[in-house]
Amino acid sequence: MGRRKSWLVPVQYSIGLVMMWLSFTVDAWIGSGSSSSPQMTALTVAFFALNTLAATQDIAVDGWALTMLKARNVGYASTCNSVGQTAGYFLGNVVFLALESADFCNNYIRLVPQPYGIVTLDTFLMFWGVVFIITTSLVWLLKVEKKEHVIQRRHSNDSEEYPGGFLREDSNEGRDSAGMPLQEAEAPGILTSYRQLVSILKLHNIRMYILFVIFSKVGVCVADSLTGLKLIEYGVPKEKLALLGVPVVPLQIILPVIISRYTAGPRPLSVYMYAYIPRLLFGLAFAWLVSWTRQLGIEYGTGNMPTYFYLVVVGLYCLHQVTVYSMFVAIMAFHARISDPRMGGTYMTLLNTISNLASNWPSMVAMWFVDTLTTRQCIDKNGNVLSASCPVANSEACTKADGTCSVVTEGYYYEMAVCILFGFVWAFYHGRKLLGLQEVNLSAWRVAPTAQHSQ
After folding, report:
1. Per residue in 103-160, pLDDT tens?
2. Alpha-carbon distance 103 to 122, whole Å?
3. I need a surface site. Which of 35, 162, 333, 442 has the fewest CB within 10 A?
4. Whole-angstrom Cα distance, residue 190 to residue 184?
5. Nearest CA-CA partner of 369 in 408, 410, 405, 421
6. Residue 16 contacts residue 130 (beta carbons within 8 Å)
7. What would the pLDDT profile of 284-323 be if each residue is shown by its tens digit?
């Protein structure tokens, strides 16, 4: 079957079967259509298993991409990744929310209004479970995984065409430039792979990369994670906000293809840094957008934003996505370039995990502190202060007193200012150092074969 397909096929079959099984149980577990409370334990276990399978699939696909593509084209793996994620997000989030919404279906699709949407969660899961089974079967039967052993040069320097001095078996070269025979490297086992991870983390360049990247997303975390929530809080319906992503999807699919022309070379991190400062500045634009949304919410009422408001939101979002995808495709291309093909997807998945952690932990901290930095007062219809403290936006005590929680100081703006300032400091002190890592010889990113065998 092949080294990667032996993992990929069973895992994808399992994902399809789990989704089909969930289609029969998910409505009862989430308490849909009944007064029963959601079964959180069952939901947690089921989706933890689903995410574990998806993570395993991701590792297998990353490893297959390194050997499926020619060495000089391995940077395009990030393009495939980006386009696939965009399409998946669009189908699984935007399309589902739209077709599941009774209001959207009645306004734009149906001739006769109905109290429910065209698609339900259980039918959605069943459909995609079947799609997983069919596509996996086609990959199993039609896509042949070439028998590609990683070949190691004994005494040659790194080459640009074959990163790290490694060739594939289908190469015509039997000896290196010094006339020395090439030595075949054995595929590592599971325990060896974990030992290799430890060896990778001991590399000086990897430690420096982690140090630089782990703080790189602090400057943009507020703009990315809190802006949408604040727009909803100040009167933008979440259904309309989700549908605003529809016109952006074509751009999100085209962008990686365009950007990959500049990231497939030896210096993808240059594109990353070119997009970093503009992405920081979009934080200021989003802060203005949130302030403007609050004013329009007061003027037009919650949920009644004018059409030109949505045009401005889509325009800003499209421009913002250019910087987001430039950074994403660039960092993924860098990961594909420096990853050791001997280790398959293990190396690249480790780098992607570090990058994901760098995105997630600042967002979590920002969401944790935003309410702490925000102060509200409970005010009645006449503008009289009923309570100087209203810690939750929809405080029950304030509502019972026939009042509303009014924001006095918005923590979102404080966090935005601090994070943008931090981002500029990071770019000034660490930006050049990060760019310097792409100039390092590829052999410096490899674990020495002697070190691997000694373990």
Report:
1. 888 888 888 888 888 999 999 999 999 999 999 999 888 887 765 554 444 333 443 3
2. 19
3. 35
4. 19
5. 410
6. yes
7. 999 999 999 989 988 887 778 888 999 999 999 999 999 9
Instruction: Pull the structure tokens for residue 99.
Output: 């077709």
Amino acid symbol at 279? R
